[in-house]
Amino acid sequence: MSEKSTKGIWKVITASSLGTLIEWYDFYIFGSLAVVISTKFFPSDNPTAAFLSTLATFAAGFVVRPFGALFFGRLGDIIGRKYTFMVTLLLMGGATFLIGCIPSYETIGFMAPLLVLLLRLLQGLALGGEYGGAATYVAEHAPKGERGYWTSWIQTTATFGLFISLMVILITRGSLSEEAFDEWGWRVPFWISILMVIVSYIIRKNMHESPVFAKAKAEGKTTTNPLKESFGNKYNLKFVLLALFGAAMGQGVVWYTGQFYAMSFLKTVMNVDSSQVDGLLGLALLFGTPFFVVFGWLSDKIGRKTIMMLGMLAAILLYRPIYDAMYTTTDVAHKTEITEKTVINKSVKDLGEGKSDSIYDISKEYTDGTKFKQLKTVHLDKGQPVMVDGKAKTDVKTTVEINDSDKWMLIFLVFIQVIFVTMVYGPIAAFLVEMFPVKIRYTSMSLPYHVGNGIFGGLLPAISTYLATNAKNAGDTKFYLEGLWYPIIIAAISFVIGMVYLKRKNNIDHD
Question: What is the DSSP string of 265-317?
Answer without folding.
Answer: IIIIIS-B-HHHHHHHHHHHHHHHTHHHHHHHHHHHHH-HHHHHHHHHHHHHH
